[in-house]
Amino acid sequence: MHDPESIHDNAPATNTSGNRPFEDILNARVGRRMVLGGTLAGALGAFFVSPADAAIRVAAGPKNKAGKPSNRALIDFEPIPLYDGDDMLVSPDYTAEVIVPWGTPLSEGTPEFSWPVTSAAAQADQVGIGHDGMWFYPIGGSNDHGVLVFNNEFGTNPHVFGAELPSTAEQVAVSQHAHGVTAVEIMRDSSGTWDVVKSDRSRRFTPNTPVEFSGPVAGSPLLQNPAGNEPQGTLNNCANGYTPWGTYLTCEENFNGYFGTESGDWEPDEAQARYGFSPTGFGYGWHLFDPRFDLADPGYANEGNRFGWVVEIDPMRPDKKPIKRTALGRVKHEGAATTVGRGGRIVVYMGDDQRFDYIYKFVSERNYKSMTARGQSPLDHGTLYAARFDADGTGEWLELSLNNPAVAAVFSSMDEVLTFARLAADAAGATPMDRPEWTTVAPNGDVYCTLTNNTRRTEPNAANPQAPNPDGHIIRWRDADRHVGTTFEWDIWILASETAGTDYSFTDPDGLWADRDGRLFIQTDGGQPEGANNQMLVANAGTDEIRRMFAGPAGCEITGVAITPDRRTMFINVQHPGNGDPAISLWPGSGPVPRDATVVLQRKDGGIVGS
Ligand code: FEO
Ligand code: CA
Ligand code: CA
After folding, report:
1. In Å, what is the CA distance from 247 to each residue of 240, 314, 375, 566?
2. Ligand number with the minimum distance to the CA of 525
3. 240 CA distance to ligand 2 middle (Å)
4. What are the CA-CA distances from residue 21 to residues 118, 139, 271, 355, 357 (Å)?
5. Can you tell me whether residue 51 is helix, strand or coil?
6. How far is the CA of 153 from the centre of ligand 2 (A)?
7. pTM of the model
8. Using one digit for the tens of pLDDT, what is the confidence trace for 58-91?
9. Which protein residue has the closest C-alpha to ligand 1 atom 3?
């Protein structure tokens, strides 16, 4: 999400549970390690590099065609400097091509983009705005043909239809249809250019698309409205995940901001306050013409409970509705990083991006293949946990169910626990974090999570000596019992402030993805060093080497990462170029407004992207 001066910074921290702030624990933890291990940088860098890890990292290095380790370093591209121009800048070893900008038509007969957007019907069949989390689903295993699925997190009213507030229901629908998810079939032609295929697989999911609920909360009164309206829509789709069975997970983040009311009598209840609902929301004004989003409309009393979920989409089944997987809990989901844990169980790591909110984990009940064979979704049956980080470098996953006495003291049913997962995690004693954004699982089992910043920090400490702390850091942990246990060891992988003055300086880490060689792709969202534009860096998680690969145009954030099966083509997103303001940027074209778009990256020598 657009950061740092807008939505998140204006939103009050809604966690008043009094759980021990992460800063205190970080302070204690880093302080201990500085005593033990000498320099701060040394202490931060090497915590997990045991001989066994080193062996895994070597084994996971690049291979040649014979399967032997190659001599090429994991990262050997020429890095770029900080960049503050109004184009994009990529390493001279790479090419970058813009595809599928906001407004690209998905079917024959759908009009090309024009601005201001006036037709809700047209926008519902064009690529959405606010490109974010993304994955590529090859067709027939191809590296040149597949379905690219990406989130359309947000776009402001002035950017979309040229006014602060909607004055018609059509304008509300235009705004709604710019949000959601885009699935677009793409194919690379003989000249190397990617073209849109206008097939059934190219389709949109918007806040008005029919959806289903599944898992423990499906059928609960908490998801029913007196108006009797069927479940519709997904919105503020931020980061994502992808499953071993070929589906896409889209994550609903700041859903609260699309609700509002003109009623002076409305006040949030405890749960609504914890999720940040307010009369003005983020200023979209959808409630002015759509009663679903009017907080005071008794007919839609539970509409807000229908958002904040992880939603599963099958890119190859255009006939299937998106399914909201309630077992994964309702929070402001940033992403949903999956891995297969011991016993073949699916494990999903998830950040809840707000100051002082939590990191979550879901573990399926059994082996995902046997569950699928029985017709069960592995995402419907399992256990949800929230993380507690302890000062001694260990941590515990706290079960969010009635088995946990602290949760049972507050809630009496699982539909409440999952719908109000933040309050369950408050009760369980989870550790309030500095805005958890993306998580990713490296090939050696380490899990990394970006903590983008926390401008409400008041106490300077050894870990983050600035107060407030605008720069963020990346934490990592290793779960016991191959991701299915309830304990873990953790450490800080890097403090962004430590990179100041280096040739890989960055702040506000947000997007994060580990490839299967152990490269970490780090994408930023916030004011970068020396006023530079947001960027993507590549790190070797084994050696901590970091190089800057790509920078976007002024006012954008870089987010989302997807890759072809051969890893020779990567897709990343440029979100809100110019912050949507044509006076700042017209990227990637000539106007009248800047357009969010996907960028295709390839090594000029045809090598693995990131190398
Ligand atoms: Fe949608 Fe927290 O970024
Ligand atoms: Ca983000
Ligand atoms: Ca962000």
Report:
1. 11, 5, 15, 19
2. 3
3. 10
4. 46, 46, 21, 10, 10
5. helix
6. 9
7. 0.92
8. 333 333 444 444 556 899 999 999 999 999 999 9
9. 1
Nearest-CA neighbor of 180 among 362, 307, 290, 9? 307
**Residue 1 Cα to ligand 1 middle (Å):** 4
Beta-carbon count within 10 A of 443 CB = 17
Per-residue DSSP letter, 322? P
What are the start-end ranges of the H helices in 387-420? 405-408, 414-419
Higher pLDDT, 47 or 421: 421
CA-angle at 386, arms to 380 and 390, nearest 5°: 155
CB 209 within 8 A of CB 234: yes
With contact defined as beta carbons under 8 Å apart, do 332 and 253 qualify? Answer: yes
Closest CA relative to residue 174, chosen from 290, 59, 264, 313: 290
> 267-326 pLDDT, tens per residue?
999 999 999 999 999 999 999 999 999 999 999 999 999 999 999 999 999 999 999 999
Phi first, then psi: give them for residue 451, nearest 5 degrees: -115, 100
* Mean pLDDT computed over 361-367: 98
Nearest ligand by distance to the CA of 354: 1
The torsion angles phi and psi of 448, rounded to 5 degrees, stand at -115, 145
For residue 512, give the ligand nearest its CA: 2
Question: Which residues form the pocket of ligand 1, taking CB atoms under 6 Å from any ligand atom?
Answer: 1, 153, 238, 253, 334, 353, 437
The DSSP-derived string for 484-499 is TSSEEEEEEEEEGGGG
